Hints:
The protein is an all-alpha fold. Helix content is 65%, strand content 0%. It is built from six helices and no strands. The longest helix is centred in the N-terminal third of the chain and has 25 residues. The termini are far apart. The mean pLDDT is 79.
Amino acid sequence: MTDYDTLAAEQARRLRPELDPSSGPGAARSHRAFVRMLSIAAECNDLRTAGVRNAITAIAERRRMSHSTVTMILHRARNCGITIIDQPTLPSLDGALRIVADWYASSEGRDVLIEDLTTAGYSIPETTR
């Protein structure tokens, strides 16, 4: 059992106490499915918060599940009202070109350009700074 599963099991007991696994096989199956859903949702949110762009693939590989199964579980989690962080997006090239054009027009200097690009979310290698 992963840390996500342990935390999800505790959360499931608080959120859905009626799914007591000791009350019968049906409740046990529902409890396990709910715990798995909470666990995968939490792992996905953590990965996306960390900036992992292919969180679903990473989860599928780690848990030895298909990509479509993880996607389906996250879809069900959203339908249950569980917040799933959207896929992180990289800044567009248009934004970088706009910043470069504005910088060039005002000719404030290389350091200001690097600062503006960094502020906008573009990573600048240390060798160019």
